[in-house]
What we know:
coiled coil; 3 domains; alpha+beta; six-stranded antiparallel beta sheet; Envelope_fusion-like; single chain
Amino acid sequence: KNELLDNEYQRSLDKLIKYNKEIDELMKLFPTGKQKRGLINVGGNLLNSVFGVMDNDDRSEVNQQIKNINDQTNQMSLNAAKQLVIIKNVNNVTEENRKSINKVIERIKSYDSILKQMYNDKSRDVNNYLRANYILDTIREQIWEAIETVRKIRLGINMVLAGEITTDLLPEDMLQKILKDIEKEIGNKFYMPYPTTTGNLINYYKLLKPKISLDNKDLYIGLELPLLDEENRLDLYKVGYLPVYQPKQDVFFVEDGKTDYIATDPNRTRYIYFSDNELAKCNILTDQAKICPGNKVWLKHKKDCVWDELTRTRENKGVACPVKIFRDEERIYMVKQEDGLVYSTKGEVVVNSECYGLKKDKIISKNWRSVLKGVGKLDNLKGCKIKTDSFELYIESEFTTKYNTKLVSQTAWESKLHIYEEKAATIWDYRNTTGLDLIPENRDNARDIDGLLEEY
């Protein structure tokens, strides 16, 4: 912009100089002389009239015009000079403004650089904050996960102390892998209690027995898993002691009970006694199968009353069985069972039963009458009332939801048994077990559980 103003000023000045030169050249064309009076004027006027020659009046007019032209020229020069001064002043102001603008631009540039630096610094700070916040959130989640893991470990250890193993210490995928590895190793001699499928893992958790050991304040957990084989498969019988009527003395007598259950091998050559409490320690495989700890001793002698009568080998060769004798005015002695009863009578006793069943969605009553004599068993009596001449006996059932649809059946025992047997289940005496060691391979990396809990 400054260069343009300089050029414009120079062009205006050149035009003014040229204009002055042209005026000077024009002035030279006019004649110069003094004005004369008298005859000359008369002669001049005459000549002007005759020949058109300039007289004094003409010269005065011309001079006046020249003077006007000079005045106008001077005024124009003056005006041009003023304009040039104004232009120059404007140019100076413009130059100053340009310098000021340049300074402002430079300051803006410096401010822009500062703002960019501030923006970059703030952006970096914000990014660092966001990154740190993300890291803190991640750490917070990891801490909560660690706390939850320790809580599960604590819960799992408490369950181990209670004799159970849970998924908190042994996840399902790890357990299934261990079971499949064991299944490959045992071959055909033994077999697993359940198929090693995902659906049976819950049963394995119930079956596994944890064992805890400490080594230099480090906690190690081992698991015991029973393996099944046919040599240790037993038939379990519930044993009841039934009074037998002795007509000569008119009394009932019954052997003094020793056990609640007896387990035998399929050939009935060996047996083991179980009490209710001992059987409660067994693990249930199915409704009709259990696994019991192998801490019982097999019995093989023939001098036990229960065993002799169970194997039908008792011949009364001096084997004295302890008995209880009691008198009863009733002619029948009954013991209720789950869905029936066993009985012992003084001769013949008439028994009536009143039962309810379901036929085509209708409740019907079923009546049954029989003559009982000696010892025996009645089945299918759930929900029935048993009546004799002197008493009634009710066999409880879920009457409102389940009705008896079977007929009462009677089984008479011919021999004078002092016990009655009822097959309860099949059990395995698991003397063969495999250990599942959860001890880490690298014991140096094992952590003291108390220290770990304290840390978190």
